[in-house]
Amino acid sequence: MSRFPTVAAFEAALASLPGPDQAARDAAAARQMQLTKPAGSLGRLEDIALFMAGWQGRARPRIDHGLALVFAGNHGVTRHGVSAFPAEVTAQMVANFAAGGAAINALAGAAGLDLRIVPIDLDRPTADFTVEPAMSEAQCLAAINAGADAVDPSLDLLLLGEMGIGNTTAAAALCLRSFGGTAQNWVGAGTGVGAHGQMVKRQVLDLAMACHADLPRTPFETLRCVGGREIAAMAGAMLAARHHLIPVVLDGFVCSAALGAMAAGAPDICNHVIAGHRSAEAAHGRLLKRLVLTPLLDLGMRLGEGSGGAVAVAVMRSALAMHDQMATFADAGVSAG
Length: 337
Ligand SMILES: Cc1cc2ncn([C@H]3O[C@H](COP(=O)(O)O)[C@@H](O)[C@H]3O)c2cc1C
Ligand SMILES: O=C(O)c1cccnc1
Fold this sequence. Notes:
By secondary structure, the protein is an alpha/beta fold. It has 15 helices and 5 strands. It has a single domain (65-318), classed as Rossmann fold, CATH 3.40.50. Helix content is 50%, strand content 8%. It has a 5-stranded parallel beta sheet, sandwiched between helices. Helix 2 runs antiparallel to helix 3. The termini are far apart. The model has no long low-confidence stretch (mean pLDDT 98). It binds alpha-ribazole-5'-phosphate (RBZ) and nicotinic acid. Residues 83-85, 89, 93, 162-169, 190-191, 303-305 line the site of alpha-ribazole-5'-phosphate.
């Protein structure tokens, strides 16, 4: 059976988010104080170790079984010319993932993550959300469950990624509907559209907001009206991971927008995620501020696929190696301060 058989089940899961294991986090913090370094001297690496300890419920967290989960979907809104690439590229890139030739294949491998690609109804693009909701209730629930069902409860860490030509427009629409502002605030170059393409994206957003103005601003309705299948799947996977107490690493703007749509109704959903990086898509920084998330890396990346998050996982492995392998002052015979 699907994890979220009804919209009410999805909403109930968002309203009952479990918290971290405080005892495991405290034990990890106590260990940090004993390691042979001045307290706090490893900065953000120390925070990562505590974050992982709390969510994994282990004083010595580990990443033996980490997964990069990449969802793919197609978008009816591409008919307006919102991407620098044609919609066929979504399926072509899925073939490239299968053949091992995409950036995420290399970067997931470098980060020691398994990689799983989940294409969702690529031959059925979402509807053009300037004139009608992108998905029916059943379609949106199916996509959310495709995400939730792909989350193995035994995972130590989950990285989410996406592939879907046109999806920076959907992500911008999710942000505009969730957090307000202007279309200009949330629109960017995506795959590399110029000034004209960005103007079209802004127009598309304004039409979409007018079209769905009367529908409830709940996370589900926002995902359904202006999201996409791969975006709803990332949201479902994040929510399922939260209930399995699996820490999540976010990738860029599109991935973060899936979280944003849920966070607008349930801000605590952000507590079990690490923002892997800040994408060069300008709206991503704005969104992360709204979510009160500080990105680990800022490498000027703007690809998606989970690529930036995968590089962040390599840094997280360093944090856990430090936490697990360093000697204590007592063990090493080093005088404590
Ligand atoms: C070859 C190629 C590989 C990609 N991998 C991720 N994306 C990224 O670009 C798309 C979003 O940008 P837009 O909204 O401008 O279409 C998504 O598929 C995203 O994952 C790619 C895009 C292309 C062209
Ligand atoms: O930040 C992202 O997720 C992103 C940016 C550009 C294109 N696709 C995705």
